[in-house]
Structures are given as structure tokens and as C-alpha cells.
């Protein structure tokens, strides 16, 4: 099995080494290819620097990535890196893309904005399994917990691929023995924070954020993560709905 490890936090992020080690633990051939700098919030954007019609990238040693793994720093978004890999521009196409481990959670419908999840979306649209992994703190203390959870999910993916979908894993930033388990979760209607847009007294648009409330029986990713669960969500990449009724547009050309 060939595994591509990428992220949106950049080649210097310690999260890459965790996923590289997890992939090596299942016997995979691993390539790390990540943005040269932070590309957070890039979604599945296909932006990159080119030189003579080639993506700009160089061989580097990413922090703590095992020496047997080749590492590329690329002046590109994670979505473009995955696209290049899927089309065989970084060697043979991968069978699986691991994206992360991200600093901070990627929750709810806000995953559409995430470069971490966007990389996995790009993989899925090219028929490649995609797993996005995030640790629920912007300055994590418990990277090892994310590695253990990612390895558990990765072994499950190898045994039973999800085929054309994306797995989104969010892990609490706490010791592994304080995580309640890995639980399936629905996407919350918001992200890790809920945005409120209002018009101020002077007519300016004011955006504020609040922590969303969740009931004790809420099974969304945001609520379960707050209660100490690692959450696993199956997300469909963009696809058309060919069965929904269309609005009546009348005759053409319009009168």
C-alpha cells in the first residue's frame, strides 16, 4: 500500500511524523509531501507556485519523520499536492491519503473550509481513500493520543475501505487513558465555534463567536468531542443529486 501524508499546517508541523509512523506501522510505503508554509483554511484550493510549468518543491527532513520516509516541501496547497500525487506527478499514485494531524479541531459543516479535510476530499474525488485527523487544541500537549487514535482508524480503513468517502477524525487533547473511546458522529451545523454576524450602531458588520451549546444526548462531532470522545465522521465529497426535482425554468429562450 502507498500512503501520501500531507497537511495544511506546513512541513514543520509535528503532526506529519505521527501519521507517517502510523502508516509505517501497517507496512505502507510512505511519502510525506506538505506545504512549505501554513495553508490553513485553504479548503481544496488548487493554488501553487510553478517554475517552468512544474510545481516548486524540494527534499527536506520534516521534524521527527523516520529517515526511511522521503519528505517534500512544496509551494502549494494540500489540495494541489494531493491532485499532483493522484495524477502520478510525485511517483506512483497513492492508495490512501492521510491529512494532518491538524492543530485544532475540524468540526461540523465548517469542514468545507479546512485545508486538512480539503486534501482528503481531493483524494476521494480521485478514487483514493482519505483520512483527515485533527487534535482539538491550537497548541496541543497530547500528540501521542492522536497517533494512537489515527492508527486504530487506519487499521480499520485498510480492513474495510469507505470507498469514495472521507473519514474525518477529531481527537481530544488529553492523555489516551482519559479519552472515552472513538465514536461515530454527525456533523454539527457549525464548527468548533458558532459565528454571529450583526450590524453595529455605526452600520459596520460585526462578527462575534461563541461556544455552541450541546445537550447531553447530542451525537454531533462538536458535542461528543467536548464530552471526551474521539469522533469519526464519514463525509461525502461534493457530488450531484440527480434525483432531486429542479425548479421550473419555463421555456427557452425566455419571453
UniProtKB/TrEMBL annotation:
Its EC number is 3.1.3.5. Residues 3-187 form the Survival protein SurE-like phosphatase/nucleotidase domain. The keyword Cytoplasm applies. It catalyses: a ribonucleoside 5'-phosphate + H2O = a ribonucleoside + phosphate. Keywords: Cytoplasm, Hydrolase, Metal-binding, Nucleotide-binding. It is an enzyme of class 3 (hydrolase). It comes from the Bacteria. Pfam families: SurE (PF01975). Belongs to the SurE nucleotidase family. This is 5'-nucleotidase. The lineage of its organism: Bacteria, Bacillati, Actinomycetota, Actinomycetes, Micrococcales.
Amino acid at each position: 500500500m502507498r500512503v501520501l501524508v500531507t497537511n495544511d499546517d506546513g512541513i514543520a508541523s509535528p503532526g506529519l511524523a505521527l501519521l507517517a509512523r502510523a502508516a509505517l506501522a501497517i507496512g505502507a510505503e510512505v511519502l510525506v509531501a506538505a506545504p512549505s508554509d501554513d495553508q490553513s483554511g485553504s479548503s481544496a484550493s488548487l493554488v501553487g507556485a510553478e517554475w517552468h510549468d512544474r510545481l516548486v518543491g524540494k527534499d527536506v527532513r520534516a521534524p521527527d519523520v523516520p529517515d526511511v520516509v522521503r519528505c517534500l516541501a512544496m509551494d502549494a496547497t494540500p489540495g494541489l499536492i494531493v491532485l499532483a500525487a493522484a495524477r502520478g506527478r510525485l511517483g506512483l499514485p497513492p492508495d490512501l491519503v492521510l491529512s494532518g494531524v491538524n492543530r485544532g479541531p475540524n468540526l461540523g459543516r465548517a469542514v468545507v473550509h479546512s485545508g486538512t479535510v480539503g486534501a482528503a476530499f481531493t483524494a476521494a474525488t480521485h478514487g483514493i481513500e482519505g483520512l483527515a485527523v485533527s487534535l482539538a487544541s491550537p497548541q496541543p500537549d497530547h500528540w501521542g493520543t492522536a497517533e494512537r487514535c489515527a492508527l486504530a482508524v487506519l487499521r480499520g480503513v485498510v480492513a474495510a475501505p469507505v470507498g469514495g468517502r472521507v473519514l474525518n477524525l477529531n481527537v481530544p487533547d488529553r492523555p489516551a487513558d482519559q479519552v472515552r473511546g472513538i465514536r461515530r458522529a454527525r456533523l454539527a451545523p457549525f464548527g468548533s465555534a458558532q459565528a454571529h454576524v450583526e450590524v453595529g450602531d455605526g452600520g459596520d458588520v460585526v462578527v462575534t463567536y461563541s461556544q455552541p451549546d450541546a445537550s447531553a444526548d447530542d451525537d454531533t462531532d462538536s458535542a461528543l468531542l467536548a464530552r471526551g470522545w474521539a469522533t469519526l465522521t464519514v463525509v461525502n465529497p461534493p457530488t450531484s443529486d440527480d434525483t432531486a426535482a429542479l425548479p421550473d425554468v419555463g421555456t427557452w429562450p425566455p419571453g
